[in-house]
Amino acid sequence: MSRRTLIKDHLLEAMLFRRRAWVMAVFCLVFIIILLVRLVNLQVIEHKHFDKLSENNRVRLMAIAPNRGLIFDRNGVVLAENRPSYRLEIIPEQVDDMDGLLAELGQLVELDEMTLKRFLKAIPRSRPFEGIPLRTKLSDDEVARLAVNRYKFPGMEITARLSRYYPLGESAAHVIGYVGRIDEDELKYVDETQYAGTSHIGKTGLERFYEKELHGEVGHQSVEVNVEGRILRVLDKKQPIPGNDLILSLDSRMQSVAEQALGDYNGAVVAMNPNNGEVLAMVSMPGYDPNLFVHGISIKDYRRLQNPEKRPMYNRALYGQYPPGSTVKPFVALAGLENKIMGHKESIPCEGYYLLPNEERKYRDWKKTGHGHIDMEDSLAQSCDVYYYELSYRLGIDRMHAFLQQFGFGSPTGVDILGERSGLLPSREWKQRTRNKIWFPGETLIAGIGQGYVLATPMQLASATSILAMRGQGYKPRLLKEIRDPALGENRSIDAVALAPVKLNRQTNWEHVIKGMISVVHGIRGTARAVGGGLKFQMAGKTGTAQVFGVAQDEEYDEDVIAKKHRDHALFVTFAPADKPEIAIAVIAENGSSGSGVAAPIARKVLDTWMETQEQK
Amino acid sequence: MISDNGFRNDNGRDSFTLKVVRVLHLDPFLLFGILLLSMTGMVVLYSAGDQSIALINKQTTRLVLAFAIMLALAHVSPAGLRFWSPWIYGIGIILLVLVLLVGDVGKGAQRWLDLGFIRFQPSEMMKLATPMMLAWFLSDKPLPPTAKTLLVAAVLLLLPTLLIAKQPDLGTALLIFTAGFFVVFLGGLSWRLLIGLGISGAALLPVLWHYMHDYQRNRVLTFLNPESDPLGTGYHIIQSKIAIGSGGVYGRGWLNGSQSHLDFLPEQSTDFIYAVFAEEFGLIGGILLLTLYAFIVLRGLVIAVNAQDTYGRLLGGSLSMTFFVYLFVNVGMVSGILPVVGVPLPLISYGGTSMVTLMASFGMLMSINTHRKIWAR
Q: In whole angstroms, what is the distance from residue A51 CA to residue B272 CA?
């Protein structure tokens, strides 16, 4: 290393530094130009693109759920309404520590294990940035506590919503049904746009059947939001169109009278106006509180409703298929008259049992001693079985099937609730198809007294009785009377749907049978004579006692030794006034033992309520 | 023209203002630039911080503190700064080692040291100490530096850089390396060596990649393709580009930036404050702001060029250029041409640490400019 380089030359160093400083200045200039080019690129050339992105960023289109239509009974009593309720929602995308948040919220509001479980399960199923309900039905105290602490919990929202409420509780629960949260399966078929803001959907009953009418049309609003999704300002709004109100043919007073009349019996009552098919009461007992389902039912409550003996959720009026027992006899009698195999004055000897030619088996009458010689009117009044064994034997299953079919046996009535069962009206063809066996003549006898294979729902019995009451001209049963557009205030009536009339060769045959049914109630020996007093008009009816438990050939049916669940079902069908029918009723009390003793008085109570309403008019 | 040390009025006598400026050892040009920039910063911060007066008050307090530090350092003569340089550097290195051993972990990195009465980041101190040390080391060596000198300088430079990179705080490490590098470059590092180092540095990039932490790799990957992860790490860049781009030429106007006010922009009052500024004041505001920054940097370079000794020249040049690097890295990062490294926009971003460091460096520049020996005039 040379000596020269070790000596500092201040002048040279200053010049060197000046050169380097210039380099630095140029360096700065170049990089500032780079920045400027970048800014020009973003703010001038791509400005439009980013402007649009910015607009999308802050403006969000939100769906506004329409208010669900209300449900009223025929007298304007509210059966389903919307009440404001507060709920706690969490937007999972905005929560860093979900466990921590839930723990802290648990200090402020009650969160049981079920609630948490359901919430955690709902997270993966939700749409992104959608609030997932954690707690519903918050009390005012809870709302206040959460509101004060809201700033601590990003992603937490307290939303006020209208939620469904059924003011009558258990009454008519099976008819009205209930709404519940839209589940995964329902998400697949609902109109995504229409349900964009809706969380609940009709699950059963009318709530489900008339979902389209009740739901309404979704509205939209464009809102300016911040990154947390909180709404800062509404830019544009299209109001939703509320759902239509339903006005039912149901009379809630008659409904509750029927419910109370059934009391502790499991069973069903259907009352309808035979002149137009309007269902006045449709009871299935025991009932349940539909309000439990609106916010999600607890396991405990749900287990209680799954009670296998009582099955409160089960709509017996439509889904319960019972052997109609003797209530089928008027129709069988009419078939005999119409097919001219039995004259209306013709008497049949009854010795308490019936024997088929070449068969040993005794077909027993409910009355061991027999009814003696008995004609059609008395056979109905006293419910003689032997008479109907003989009639059925003569009639044969084919003609019986063809005739009873006209009254709706074996097919759903078409009432406006989903899932109605069709009952069963057996035929040769049916037995061959389902059991791959030929029809035995004995089975015709059993079918003739409404036992064996024959099954009918209470709704079917009411409908068939209506057709009979109207001398053949039936109407499709329906619960909906009018639809009201709440925006316009206009009511639209639902027209009665006439069924294909049952045409008889001789019109007087109707009267012969109805005369027998009048005797059931008003005759000296009528099975239901106990309920016929104090009426301004005559009622026509038929009791029925349907076997649940097969009694062996020579065994006695002893009510006292048979467990309650094996006791006979009690049935009663009736219409009134007999000459100009206004109401038809079908009652079934499961294990009620006696159609005359249990079912008929229930029908009478419903009838009394109907009379009261008629008098008030 | 920018003169050596301030204004003179028409009759050759100093005005009262100029007397004050001189007594306080202030450089009026630099002071003017800093004050204008700080005030602009307050205006932008008011908007970015959702018009919070509390935020402005806090920032003002910091600014006053930082100004006091600047004034204090302006009073220290360059000779004094030079004397203390190795001591500050040495203490800084010890503290860096301590941070690695016992430092507090904040946001996944060990940067803070709790001394009981105060919590601070030794790495922030090294932003000044490293160029000071290198300027001290080179000031009595013949320049351009010899190979042996360069080797020692490289050690002095790499020691703090690596210690900070280990925390890990890659952004600060790079800034410190840059600050020290500028000293060596201004000291006369030969172009041939510079190009050679550049090429070998590029060749070492894969090795560097290998030693990077996952989050650092992620940042680089996100920088290369921010749209690949719009809700994750790319979110910041996308949102800030939207804010800048939607500002256009004229901007949406003060307090009207929807991106900023709707909270879409992350770190809107700290590292990403330029996006708020650009959205509200547009390209025109951006050009004016960059011009102001350029003015400050150039004034710093002029001070360095006019400095009376090598130490002042090298330190002044390095500090000016570091200030520029801050600006470039921040605006480059916010506008999406550099990866997100967590460098604030000098004198505008909310936050105290960087403001104190920057004002301290301006204090040193003023000291270099105002403490002159008579014989040099």
A: 18
